Fold these 4 entries.
Entry 1:
Amino acid sequence: MLCAVGPVLAQPARIAVVNSELILPDSLPAKQAHNRLAQEFSTRDRELQDMDRKTRALADKLEKEAAVLTDLDHQRRQHEVAELTHEFQRKQRGFREDLQQRRNEELNRPGFCGGSHS
């Protein structure tokens, strides 16, 4: 028996390295998961983009009109921009957290590479 083990041990080891981060995004389950997430979150993403554009437009308008505004109007608009910015950041944070949670759920779905197969 020991004679049979000798030639096997004498063979050089061959090790293959697979970068799953490069392969998984191109897999069918990954593409399907991406499509599900894109469909699920597209409306919220558009709403956030619209909110960001409106907030930036309001801030730009405030900056351009600052010289002609009364102090009270300037403070009121600054407060409005600050509130919108805070609201945008809150919604964006919630969006990212929800997206990350759903992404993790998709990655752990049965049938997905590396997911649980219960």
Entry 2:
Amino acid sequence: KLPAEGNAIILRFANRVPLMYQQGACAITDCISRINWKSYNISQQGLPTGPVLILVHVASTNVPFTSESKDAIASIPEIEKEVILALQDLGRDLKLFVSRRDRNKLSEDRARAVCAIIPEIAHKVSEIVEKPVVDTSPIEGRLMRKLIVKKWTNDGKVTIELANYSGSDGELSIYEISADPAADAEPKADFTSELDGQFTKVWKLIVPPKETSRITYSGKGGGILEIRGIDDAKKMVVDLDV
């Protein structure tokens, strides 16, 4: 796990050998500090800061070291140019990745809010008008237009619900890791394993368009829920236990 504070972690290699000392005297460090990392949405105080790891490997039949101890690479314009270009290319990819991650997180937060608030509103309205609570799933589906996976725990019962509001079959695998063995799961997990008191359960399902499937089992909930086999843009995972 990368530290959230302080300078980025820099790993320097030359011909697969790690350079452990004289980081400040190395051309790799100089190249990293010369890049404007703020343009890639990374904080910078000379060197980039935050949870970032930068690894640079220089391979050559004749690596120009600053001394016989071979602890740092000498400042050669041709090497510096290639290192800077490579780091700038990776910086653009990193900026795109972080931007996409933040957008997905924002979408998930909105989905979690919608899925949590709309049922509550429906319940309160039903109390006021003294009528049965309506099913709000179609409303959620029209808002999302995706395959929505929701997980919640109530009275010792864990429920994982899959509602397909897209226009195609949802063929997916559900990975759930928690302290619950889910021995009474319905339907039964296709695969189960245990390690250090944590149980990994896998279900393989196909959910047709406009259909809903549910997995239930006894347990305390929590843990990690992951959906594989479907594009991130076509699914929304809402873990109400979080």
Entry 3:
Amino acid sequence: MRDVGHTAIIGPTGAGKTVLMNFLCVQAMKFSPRVFFFDKDHGAEIFIRALKGYTAL
């Protein structure tokens, strides 16, 4: 059985939540994780596409 992790990043506007999530995703890529990135303002869309991910509405 695999370890399963969940993460919530919460903070005010401009606190760096998207930057932190981008960093954590890049660090986790060596483990080939399945990541669901909820980004209501599309601040990480370019980052997600650069990692061969896709966005949905």
Entry 4:
Amino acid sequence: MLLRIKERNCVGTVFKSQNGYPVGYNNFRKRHFNPVVERLGLSLKTHDLRKFFGSWHLGVNKTDIMTVSKWMGHRDPRVTLSTYAKVIEELEQEHQDAIGHALVPRI
């Protein structure tokens, strides 16, 4: 059985079932994601995971724009930049503020 699962190469699949098949978006959302989010009392949508992924790689991990754009499925990196530019600016401002606070002498 493990060999059959290994043979199923689900390219582009984030989650696989126990049988090795891709878990569909609606199945994942309804049976897994939404119940956990509700139990935790959060107001998240599955698209928020995508936004976090792009933002984290560009702002925190400093992954280059071409790579992130490719991972996000954007044909043009300008789409990625226009979508995440505000997030990147906010992260840069936070870093500048942190550096500023670290350099200010404490009285």
